[in-house]
Amino acid sequence: MRITDNMMTKSYLKNLARNQQNVQKYHHQLSSMKEVSKPSDNPLLVSQIIGLKENVNSNQQYQSTIKDAIDWSNMQDASLGKATDSLMRISTLVQSAATDTMNASDRLIVRAEIETEIQTFVDALNTNYGGRYIFGGTETLKTPFEMSQDADGALTGIIYNGTSQNISREISPGVTVDLLTNGAGVLNDSGQSLGALFKEVVSALKNDDTKAVAATVGKVTTAIDHVVSFRTEVGAVSNRLGSALSRNESQDLNLREMLSSKEDIDFAKKYMQFSNEQVAYQASLQMGTKILNTTILDYL
């Protein structure tokens, strides 16, 4: 078959356009540092990149949830630490008031200090984190604990205004952790209510009843053990969250490395390809002036 000038021209211009497109493609990749800029560049690769970005974003949301839950648990731990300190002080005062060396006047002084410690205990449990109460169950906007008093202002107990449910947090797909927000669990131990115990202590001191005061010594110790045990459970939740955060951060690193391997270019390799295409394009331009009878401009 006879090769005409027109056929040679069309073939040449087609190859020249392809070389020019390659130069432009590599130039854009070097400028953006990305492998693709639009779906048509590589539909399969773009689909993989979109999927990985979704996974990264989802993992980041879980990470944010975990960190918030850790901060919440740390706040609970600090709150229970303060509550335990108050109980320890109450225990010391009750033990001193249970001896015959104190008179009625002394016990009234002790009673006043114990009432102050009870208020401190309640305030500790009413701690909030980011405007949300940490021991109100699922009711995070209402003050969970308050001291109840009779008409004479004497302590009658502690009222819990929260719910009996814990707040649950999803920390990874299908995996949840319960934050121990049910404040009733702090007050009650095998039917013994701290509110009732506080009332018993204050009443015994008010009545200057040494035997009644002595009868509360062991109960206060039990109450301390219960709050410490509850704090230990909170610590276990915090440890689990810490492990979850480590796994999440490791997964985040792996996902980002996978995304980078798909999306980001190898600069040195891409620059070499760009340089080769530039050489090919310049060679095509020079070749055109030799194989055609007319200049390139006549065909553009």
Automatic annotation (TrEMBL):
Q: Where is the Flagellin C-terminal domain?
A: 218-300
Instruction: From the Swiss-Prot or TrEMBL record, give the protein name.
Output: Flagellar hook-associated protein 3
The UniProt record lists the keyword Cell cycle: no
**What main location does UniProt list?**
other
Q: Where in the cell is it found?
A: Bacterial flagellum
Which parts of the sequence belong to the Flagellin N-terminal domain? 3-140
Q: Which Pfam families match?
A: Flagellin_C (PF00700), Flagellin_N (PF00669)
What are the entry keywords?
Answer: Bacterial flagellum, Cell projection, Cilium, Flagellum
A GO MF annotation of the entry reads: structural molecule activity
Output the Gene Ontology cellular-component terms. bacterial-type flagellum hook
Kindly give the InterPro entries that the UniProt entry links to this protein. Answer: Flagell_FlgL, Flagellin, Flagellin_C, Flagellin_N
Similarity comment: family membership:
Belongs to the bacterial flagellin family.
List the GO biological process terms.
bacterial-type flagellum-dependent cell motility
Q: Is the Cytoplasm keyword given for this protein?
A: no
